[in-house]
Write a structure and sequence with these properties.
With 268 residues, the protein is an all-alpha fold. It has helices at 2-8, 15-20, 24-32, 37-52, 60-63, 66-82, 85-98, 103-131, 134-156, 162-177, 179-189, 196-224, 227-248, 257-266. It starts with a helix and ends with a helix.
Length: 268
Amino acid sequence: AGLLGGLMLMASESPRWLMKAGKRKETKIALDKMVDSAAAKLEIQQIEQALNEEEGRWSELFTTGYRRALLIGVVLAAFGQLSGVNAILYYSSEIFKTAGATHDMAFLQTATIGLINFLFTLIAIACVDRAGRKTPLLIGTLIQAIALFFAGFLLRNNFTGPLLLLTVLVYIAAYAAAMGPITWLINSEIFPSKLRGRAMSIAILTLWAANFLVTQTFPLLNQTLGIAKTFWIYSLLNLLSFFFVLVILPETKNRTLEEIEHYWIARK
């Protein structure tokens, strides 16, 4: 928490917040750090236009072109949890004990998972603006599906030890580099300023509802179907998320929030 607080002191204010607060000069300075002068001038005009629009209504999320954006935000948030990541993070010690690991070894493997999760999240932060959103999600969800299927195969056939740990680490790395952070990023990008608060509240509510569902059903699935079949179910859900991203999700890389808003309006 202290580290987070310290880093937040280094963060600049959002250009949209600065403009809304009437700080045009500070807005220009903030944008000049991100883009060239001409692009900053254009974005200021787009921000002004967006801020001059009337406050959005709940009904606009369901009756205009924004409903597709809402669908993407909600389904992506749900898939982020239905991928099974928190079942593995919350119950990793029990999973490795089931696979035959000792208490100390299970604890060490769980700590390794946490470290990989942290490191690959940093990689995602460093690379997401260059790699985009859609391509990493496609690669990540496909790797997740394959890794969980293989982990289920190993558990089904009593292959444990380093190979099982490696498979789980590959899954965690793929999630941390793509689905984990990019789900939040996309939800912050695809909604217009006037509707962002309402839309994100629905998406985040869905995310935590899906998280609750996964964490509460994992012990039951493990008990009734076994750990291998439970992993295969998560593998299938990851494969479904791959096809959802492939077919439905537009790329938002290098688009301003205003450009994304116009994209939804044009598709209603």
